[in-house]
Amino acid sequence: MTFYQDERIGLFIDGANLYAALRGLDMEIDYSKLLREFRNRGRLIRANYYTALLQEHETSPLKPLIDWLSYNGFNVITKPAKEFTDPQTGRKRIKGDMDVDLAIDALLAADWLDHLILFSGDGDFCVLVRALQSKGVRVSVVSTVKSKPPIAAAELRRQADNFIELADLAQMIGRDPL
Prior knowledge:
This protein is of the alpha/beta class and 178 residues long. The chain has helices at residues 15-25, 31-39, 63-71, 99-109, 126-134, 154-159, 170-173; strands at 8-14, 43-54, 75-85, 92-95, 115-119, 138-143, 162-165.
């Protein structure tokens, strides 16, 4: 990972995608370690965490995490998720895509960031990465290819200035075993 002490850094975390990557690696993140790690690598300007929440469920399993993040240095961006029945399979599904929210915020942040770290492996972000790069922002993607199946899209890894394997960060930002 190449960082410069004086560069302005922004973390943009696609919560659902990061969760899938962590689950695929059987890993948990200590978010305070995550902040500390990136604060030590430059001037951390913003740490955004994006997730959709089911509004009908008063006690979402995400609620404690969201509360902790919002009180401990993260800007948490949420929107209501929608539950629906898939007409082909008849199974209940949840839809709550935050990609557009993350992309708009990242483009707006390009004016005051030197380096954007995107925690997502979603190939749909290739267009965002290209747009940020055209504005002079370096983009590092944090995801994994070590899970089965790999979470990080090949085209996103190729487009990014740097690809950071999430599994390689386990010692730095992983939760300590109980």
